[in-house]
Amino acid sequence: MNKKQKILLVLIGFCMLLVVGLVGFNVLMPKPEIQPDDVEVMERSVQEEVADEPKAEEKAEEKEFVNIYFIGKNEHNEEVYKAVKRVYNKDVDGSKIRFAVNSLIRGPKQEEQQRGVYTEIPSGSQVINITEMPDKVVVNLNSSFVIGGGTESLYKRLYQLIKTVKLNTSLPVYLFIDGQRADVVGGEGIMLAQPLSNSSLDN
């Protein structure tokens, strides 16, 4: 071993001793307590949102929802049919199909409208009755449902109804206007294949 190698070994040994000594010093020495004034709090760049606490009655019972189809815009600003959730209570609202159709005809709530949701169903539209039988459902609306707005608007409101009823019953659903089966609707004479389905307006 030459002189240079000896010096290098001595330096390495010294460095190792120094490192060991510093580690031991940090472990053994008591650390001062951090005081509140010693911590600098930076202003948050993102505001934190706190979720609302569930209400006591919502915690006590699990809510059931019904989807109703209105119209809105997607992230690309394209017009789409939007399913809106509504709280449903069987004891108060009756069957899902009855509640869904009545909610659809009444239109979107104010808070839903503020989110850009709207309907093509005219404001004068009313449910005359909804007859539920073991093998089918008959939805009887007044003539205001099919009057005005033009062909495109009529197609949209019919699709709103079709999508809503198909989502809320497994039974065949038939549309009646003022008590008459609506196989042809509107002044333009749009053919409507029944029972209602997604292909009812394909003719």
Structure description:
This protein is of the alpha+beta class and 203 residues long. The protein has a domain of 131 residues. Helix content is 34%, strand content 21%. It contains 6 helices and 8 strands; from the N terminus they run H-H-E-E-H-H-H-E-E-H-E-E-E-E. The chain has a 4-stranded mixed sheet with strand order 3-4-5-6, covered by helices on one side. A two-stranded antiparallel ribbon has the order 1-2. Strands 7-8 form a two-stranded antiparallel ribbon. It is elongated, with a radius of gyration of 35 Å. About 12% of the residues have low confidence.
Write the layout of secondary structure elements.
Layout: H1 3-28, H2 56-60, E1 64-73, E2 79-88, H3 90-93, H4 96-106, H5 110-114, E3 127-132, E4 137-141, H6 150-168, E5 173-177, E6 180-181, E7 184-185, E8 190-191
Helix pairs in contact: 4-6
Helix/strand order, N-terminal first: HHEEHHHEEHEEEE
- Structural category is alpha+beta
Tally the beta strands: 8
Please describe the biggest sheet, giving its number of strands, its sense, and whether it closes into a barrel.
Answer: 4 strands, mixed
Which ranges are low-confidence, i.e. pLDDT below 50, for 5 or more consecutive residues?
30-54
Strand order of the largest sheet: 3-4-5-6
Rg, nearest Å: 35 Å
Mean pLDDT: 79
User: Helicity level, as a percent range?
Assistant: 25-40%
Q: Based on CA inertia axes, which overall geometry fits?
A: elongated
As a percent range, the share of strand residues is 15-25%
Query: How many angstroms separate the termini?
Result: 100 Å
How many helix segments? Answer: 6
